[in-house]
Amino acid sequence: MKKISFFTKKDVGMGRLLFISLVLVLGWTQSATAARLDSWISQQRIMAEEQILANISPADGRPGAVLASPSRRDPDYYYHWVRDAALVMDIWMRQLEGRITLKSDRLESEQLIWDFVEFTKINQASPSISYLGEPKYYVDGQAYLGPWGRPQNDGPALRASLFIRFANHLLLSGGEGVVGRALWPVIAKDLNYVGQQITQPSFDLWEEVKGDHFYTRLTMRAALRSGATLAQRLGDNAGAAWLQTQADIVESLLSQHVDHGRQLIVENINRVEGANYKSGFDTATILAVLHTREQAIVSWFDPRLENTVRLLEHRFHEIYPINKNYPALGVAFGRYSEDVYYNGNPWFLTTLAVAEFYYLRGEIAKGDQYMERVRFHVARDGHMSEQMDRHSGYMLSAADLTWSYAAFLTAVAARDVALSKRK
Ligand code: NOJ
Ligand code: NOJ
User: Fold this and answer.
1) Which ligand places an atom closest to the C-alpha of 284?
2) What is the rounded distance in angstroms from the CA atom of residue 71 to the CA atom of residue 74?
């Protein structure tokens, strides 16, 4: 039988040449795209670090205060939110742990964390409405006393986990004295509070629903468990036993968040107050795993987490026009699909979280699609707000949101690890 070919015999050489040049061109375009992403990332990481530093210890506040954003109106984010502060300080803690590359040197990083410890002492002693569950403080360290969704119990849990890592770091070089004197009292306050609150409903990280939340619970469990280990190291066996018991109770409560039929993780359950229009599926679930690294409970490869990511991806693709307009880029993620804050839009920190999720799984190409999405919406000069308009893609809400930059840096750190493993 005659072979059917697109080329006659004498055309073969020409065809091969065409084919080879096509491969070369495609390969070149691809590596050019990758090179563009790499060079953007290397500029943007410098920018991110500078912008975070600009939002720490503002001139009109005390050292260690972390502004959520310098924006004073529409929205007013000129406060120290405990959650945001702990997540931002994670960057400097990673530097001390050798898990991220920054321009700041280690001494600077250590000083920034000590400032945060001192600021926390003021917070902990300041009169407030919901004690250590108080979500936000003025830059002088005093609690905000206006109406707000409180308590928010992920804050003290994230803060305790951060200071526990700091204590463990100082103990590596024989810092028993300083840890016992200057750090443990601050940590113990947060841990006692968290340990007592484990069965109490609180407002979620988005400050909207009072109930039980996967994010809050996982951060509590992480703090209590690592706190138990530290208490033991410091010789407080009774304290360690109590912390471990509380950690185990929280762990058993986490199973309430599993939708067994559909194999999904439900973020918000047992609502008692606040927003009641939510289905319960929320990007906070991905953040919970990223921020605690409780891999023994939910790993990056857990099918229930994968299914939840896929479900959210589908929803965000459906509801945000920018996802349909630029389908080659990764899907811009919001907080949850029913969100109405600023009319409900994708956020940088949630989209970056999905990039980080894929990098941690070693899926670099997938992670890069989300990075490309972020790159597409970030201002030319590298500034990053909280959100991007779901229709136009332009940035919106709080300018220079400190947490957006921190989310960028942790995503890039995960990318670096994935790239180094591939080599
Ligand atoms: C301000 C909160 O910070 C935000 O998370 C929330 O969506 C709005 N208030 C609306 O409740
Ligand atoms: C609103 C977000 O929902 C909340 O998580 C955050 O803590 C504050 N803004 C401050 O950035």
Assistant:
1) 2
2) 7
